[in-house]
TrEMBL record:
EC number: 3.6.1.22
Protein family: Belongs to the Nudix hydrolase family. NudC subfamily.
Protein's organism: Coniella lustricola
GO biological process: NAD+ catabolic process; NADP+ catabolic process
Co-factor(s): Mg(2+); Zn(2+)
Listed InterPro entries: NAD-cap_RNA_hydrolase_NudC (IPR050241), NudC-like_C (IPR049734), NUDIX_hydrolase-like_dom_sf (IPR015797), NUDIX_hydrolase_CS (IPR020084), NUDIX_hydrolase_dom (IPR000086)
GO MF terms held by the record: metal ion binding; NADH pyrophosphatase activity
Pfam family, one: NUDIX
Keywords tagged on the record: Hydrolase, Magnesium, Metal-binding, NAD
Domain Nudix hydrolase: 57-186
PANTHER family in UniProt: NAD-CAPPED RNA HYDROLASE NUDT12, NUDIX HYDROLASE, NUDC SUBFAMILY
Annotated protein name in UniProt: NAD(+) diphosphatase
Reactions listed under catalytic activity: a 5'-end NAD(+)-phospho-ribonucleoside in mRNA + H2O = a 5'-end phospho-adenosine-phospho-ribonucleoside in mRNA + beta-nicotinamide D-ribonucleotide + 2 H(+)
Length: 220
């Protein structure tokens, strides 16, 4: 909330300074200024017409997805340059205007990894205030054959993407979880997979998959 109030000090319609109201939960473009104890009328502003005179905190919808292979035996994980060594996570990205959640999941996975998805199931969500995201968690299943082929040439965001077996992911969930700025947990063996902590929805999605959320792979 503090970040949002800092980012939007001016009215998007007329450019005048906005006023924080409702304990910082809303901002408005008032009709008058009272600088130095002198009340002055402001120029007219379209934001004061009807119910549009209030600016609310922004929330950016973001998809995050655990991708499962067509036969249900592997999970696709990626890493970018800021991750610690051997640290991987699920794929994620912002929804675009006019795009459904399922469309965004398929597009982001293809852009970042080259993998093409068949079915997509929404699993859970998590507010992520860094600064204003709503993480929409999904589980997607890759199309068989060439649909599982990894190609990082569509988008340079990822440094690497790999298919990991369920056993590899399960072991990492038990012995290799840590935050980005944290050291590897005690008992972790050098070279093994590292994953996000339990407080992250990425961890929850991977946990759901290894615990059988996907079930038997359907015919696609």
């Amino acid at each position: 909330m503090i970040d949002w109030n800092t980012r939007v000090p001016f009215c998007a319609q007329c450019g005048s300074k906005t006023l924080s109201v409702n304990a910082g939960g809303k901002r408005t473009c008032p009709p008058t200024d009272n600088a130095g104890g002198v009340t002055k009328e402001r120029p007219s502003c379209a934001s004061r017409q009807g119910v549009s005179n209030i600016c609310f905190p922004r929330t950016d919808p973001t998809i995050i997805v655990a991708v499962v292979s067509a036969d249900g035996t592997k999970i696709l994980l990626g890493r970018n340059k800021r991750f610690p060594p051997h640290w991987y996570s699920t794929l994620a990205g912002f929804l675009e205007p006019g795009e459904s959640i399922e469309e965004a999941v398929r597009r982001e996975v293809w852009e970042e990894s080259g993998v093409r998805l068949s079915r997509v199931v929404i699993h859970s969500s998590q507010p992520w205030p860094f600064p204003a995201n709503l993480m929409i968690g999904a589980i997607g299943q890759a199309a068989p054959g060439d649909g599982e082929k990894i190609d990082l040439g569509n988008d340079p965001e990822l440094e690497d993407a790999k298919w990991f077996t369920m056993d590899e992911v399960k072991e990492a969930l038990e012995k290799g979880v840590s935050g980005l700025g944290e050291a590897a947990p005690e008992g972790w063996k050098e070279g093994n997979l590292r994953l996000p902590p339990q407080t992250a929805i990425a961890n929850r999605l991977m946990t759901a998959v290894v615990e059988g959320f996907v079930g038997a792979a359907p015919k696609i």
